[in-house]
Amino acid sequence: MVTARAPATSANLGSGFDTFGVALSHPADTVSVERAAETTIEVSGAGAQYIPTDPDKNVVGAVAEALDAPAHIHIDKGVRPSSGLGSSAASAAAAAVALNELYDRGYSAHDLVPVAAEGEAVVSGEAHADNVAPSLLGGFTVVRSDDGATSVDADLPLVACLPEVVVSTRDARRVVPDTLSMADHVETVGNAATLTAGMCRSDPELVGRGMDDPVVTPARAELITGYADVREAALAAGATGVTVSGAGPSVLAVPEPGCRRAVAAAMVEAFADAGVGARAYQTEVGRGATVL
Ligand SMILES: Nc1ncnc2c1ncn2[C@@H]1O[C@H](COP(=O)(O)OP(=O)(O)O)[C@@H](O)[C@H]1O
Ligand SMILES: N[C@@H](CCOP(=O)(O)O)C(=O)O
């Protein structure tokens, strides 16, 4: 048996819609695999009751198929599904790493990005890699449709606050505007470049400033009860930037050094004031998937 762990991720980071992603040190999914004639799937942990065990409907089934690696697969969910924290991607990345080891395929983490993205296609209809890339490679990642993923390590505290509201990725994609103005384009490019420089320098001030996004985030914020107040509360408690994590409903904040606990508490309290239960992960930029 081979077991692998792959971390939760936060995609977009505001200005990098469908492009940027970051690995969180926790939470994570753990996937164990054993050789079998046909793929079967078992799921335990956070939100297991909402996750299909049919290999045609679970992301890990598509990964096993792509690697021609049938197995009995046990997924222990640490990342709640439909959280905006790359739940399905964490399973896909962990399965890709574990099956690669089990069948001795010899692929690198970079090679496994398109393989795990095939798993994501089961959920979203398209093989997008902005969650699986950071889950496999760790750190901050940039994906482009035609040439894979670039990654850079960063040392940065983060808070991911997960409210008890449901936002499906499909719904959150429907509200994304089809077009943007040249002024918004210029602002977004400036923000994205600032964020990238901030990640390369592990500078929370630059990263927070670069998370601003005039196009996608305002449309999606409407789907998250209490978002505006949670954002204000996090900024007042010492966050340098706040945005919707992935397609939501989680909210991601970058705290100033020494402010992570206060930012987490302020976000949970602001959600509570809006009548929404929430939990906050006090986390940081983390490593990619590993065999345990
Ligand atoms: N192994 C898996 N882990 C989590 N969700 C899965 C898995 N396989 C299929 N799904 C389905 O994917 C959807 C959640 O995926 P997604 O929207 O990507 O979550 P998140 O917002 O956390 O990234 C749910 O409908 C869930 O049933
Ligand atoms: N770029 C995608 C990312 C979705 O992330 P998830 O964690 O919510 O699945 C999007 O913004 O739609």
From TrEMBL:
An annotated Gene Ontology molecular function: homoserine kinase activity
Principal subcellular localisation of the protein: cytoplasm
Highest taxon above the source species: Archaea
Pfam families associated with the record: GHMP_kinases_C (PF08544), GHMP_kinases_N (PF00288)
The protein's name in its UniProt record: Homoserine kinase
One of the record's GO cellular component terms: cytoplasm
GO biological process entries: threonine biosynthetic process
PANTHER family: HOMOSERINE KINASE (PTHR20861:SF1), HOMOSERINE/4-DIPHOSPHOCYTIDYL-2-C-METHYL-D-ERYTHRITOL KINASE (PTHR20861)
Protein's job: Catalyzes the ATP-dependent phosphorylation of L-homoserine to L-homoserine phosphate.
Annotated residues for binding of ATP: 80-90
Annotated GHMP kinase N-terminal domain residues: 60-139
Family: Belongs to the GHMP kinase family. Homoserine kinase subfamily.
Keywords: Amino-acid biosynthesis, ATP-binding, Cytoplasm, Kinase, Nucleotide-binding, Threonine biosynthesis, Transferase
Pathway participation: Amino-acid biosynthesis; L-threonine biosynthesis; L-threonine from L-aspartate: step 4/5
Reaction equations catalysed: L-homoserine + ATP = O-phospho-L-homoserine + ADP + H(+)
Localization in the cell: Cytoplasm
EC number, as in UniProt: 2.7.1.39
Domain GHMP kinase C-terminal: 198-271
